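Lesson 9: reading folded outputs for more than one chain in a single document. The general rule is that every protein is listed as its sequence immediately followed by its structure tokens, and records are never interleaved. Here is the first one.
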Amino acid sequence: MSNTAQVLSQKSLVVIFAYAPSGLGHLRVTKALYEGLPKSAHSLLLGSHDQGIAALHRIASLHPLTRSMMEISQGLIPIIEDITTYAARMYLRSNTKLIYEQLTTILDQLLTVPKTVLIVATHTTLAHQIAAIKEQVMKEKKVQLFVVVQVTDDTPQHIWYVPGADMTFIPSDRIKDQLTSYGRAFNLPKMAFEVNPYPINPKLAKILPSEEHTKRHQQVTYESKTHTHIAIPISGAAVGTRFFKDIMVALRTFSPRFMFHIVSKRAPYTETFLNEALSYDFIKLYVSDQDRAVVDKYDELYLTSTIGLEITKPSEQAFKALLKPKQFGGSLLLFSSPVGKQEYDNLLPTESEQMQLYKLAAQNKPLTTQEGLNLLSEAIHWRGVRLPDNAVEAAHFVWWCLHQGILAAMMHWKMTQRNVNGHAHELTSDGVKLFWEKVADFLHQKQTAL
């Protein structure tokens, strides 16, 4: 085992983070990995200048027709995913002029020419483009160049298979097996996949002071008079803003205890929503014009306030569910309608349990039957629950869960065999630390072999 800090802090090494602003998830992962890098390491950011990436992401996410097309291309119909993946891979690997100019300009402007360049890519676009020019850059600039890809969702999208990448970090064995099978079936170059917990900002994984954890618990206790603080991060595509507005207003009709904290980018497509939010005294905004600053504001919210709940889209499962309620970022999760193909998650209610919850909430029944008591006892194993699609129904569901003690039980979350199910190594919050340890070992082995 190499000394991680020593390897990553070598003066001859430069670490370049390659990201694209097509969604907060990619930026959030980039920041998490950056926060875990030794402070003495030499690192730079390489952001995509291709505005089409963000525009396409927004169009595909917002419109029902394009959203359906996106879901089909992501694997609902395998042959279509195979075709679109092949076309996208060929297009990206043949359109590298801009990224080549960006990367070589960065290297040319460094005061000290590095011997080794480590590129960490958190977006498929840049991962494919950089992998395609890797050999050319190494030959021209006389450097060792390694490409490490961090998969930013827990879905087996074939576009994450990046020939030429030296390491690809994947958050689950399931996705590793499916991508490996895909590469084998299409006779693609063999890749080195590394299963590692999803990267979470180490600051959010710190343990809350006991008094703050008590406050968080009080926020989801029905008998308590304290305010319930709810975070609502708006995605890079501004998906679901109408739902978020309606559920906030509806929750306030149940109780004035609900307070909301919206984290969003200020952009033309969020302007109407943000202006409406300003008219409510129970909503606080955390807004910036810059994508990276939005991620900073999200982290600062959790580090400076005690947040009890978060309403977010299901693609955040892999990110937030790994944190425990006793950690700074460990709010209880309320998942809105999914966008894109969503993953199986063993930290949530089963489909049967979720349907039982919906039924009992719709009938406004107390958890006094055996069925209800069983659900209450199982809630200790859930990090989040799914909300009904209708905002008013969702608000009633949240209020019912609060009233019946479901949320209070979830605050006592415990890892059990049900959660683990052979995947304990995927369900920890130290993914960033493990990421850099594995990368340092890889670099150490390559340097030793020279």
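And here is the second record, again sequence then tokens.
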Amino acid sequence: MASVNVNRNVTDPFYRYKMPRILAKVEGKGNGIKTVIVNMVDVAKALHRPAEYPTKYFGCELGAQTQFDVKNERYIVNGSHDAFKLQDLLDDFIKRFVLCQECDNPETNLIVKKGFILQRCIACGHTGNIDMCHKLTTYILKCPPPAEDNHGTNNTPNKKTAPKSKKDKTKKGKESNGTPQTNGDHGENGVEEKVADKESGEDDLDWNQDVSEEAVKARMQALSSAARNLTIDEDLGKSERERIDIFYNYLMNKKKDSFADASDKAVLAEAERLDIKDKAPMIMVEIFFDANIITQLKTFRNYFIRFTHDNKKAQKNVIGGLEILIGKVYHEALINKVPHIFKWFYDNDILFEEVLIEWHSKQASKKFISKEEAAEIKIKAQPFITWLQEAEEEESSEGEDDDDDLEIVYDERATSVAIETVKKPEVSNNKVEEDDDFDIDAI
């Protein structure tokens, strides 16, 4: 089986940390299609992590459900996914949850403690706090990894799915008889230290802890990170208006740095953390765009797609943001470009035909701007909406005609005719005259 470096940024062929390359097998058809990761157990052992963690990470990143059959070693992600894509996602998982934040060494253990996830490096001794923004952290908190041993081989299934063995029952029996046990060290010294911990009320006290200046500084940094994540958890207890303000300030701070460290994934994660994914696009329109919206859309297209794909509420809030931008902020500069703007959002798969037609069919509302301003925007958008509706009618009528009298001819002439029939119809001259500045074919 082919192997690759655990840290694929390291190109040294003699790098000691290797893992098998992911093998993926697609099974089923239609809605039942799924991808089985054939060697997930072997990959997880190489990373010293439960196999459920990388599988669940794939599900979070791909927006797909996952299934675990620990007994038969079957780890499944719904949908059809390429092995190369899964390998790239595994690299992201390794960077987030495996590699040491200090030395980039994969000899690390995860420790769940008081609602936080710590990462301890066996190689350099660094202890850091895992970023709690990713969805996988919720799963890790619910299903923590097994207790770390002396070698950091933290690669057994998590507590939720691990089968109970006779040794576990024996160990449980000893604990019930009042004999404390340690994780990975069953010597007399370990027992004495555990008893002392029980008496002092500090279960995890480490008498051999490094007290050097660098170690103390690392622990202080971990504590400050923990305090920051505690503040993050408190944000969810705030009102929606306050959480929207937090997201607004987050984007404004990123804008000052020209969004250098704000990827589309990071912005989505922040919105999901604050539980405002549906309403976040309205704030994004306000922060990302100005009078040069059409050119700026190319830069921020992926940001919006992450929010609006299969999400009508998010698309409606994009339209609400555009109404504010056009009707209030940049009225003179953008009002005559309304059909162009909506067509750009439509062509870039941010706004869908169904949502646009539904928005235009309703009466002008003063939800975001005045009724007069909203009505003006809808009037300006009329040629584009007409174009959408006529294109839909044309396609449906062509489909009916083809069903009535269908003749299939396998030659080049038939192919050229088929290509010509799917072209969208031109806007009637009467509609174009209503707005001299708009030409749908010139967009």
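What the second record shows: The chain has 18 helices and nine strands.
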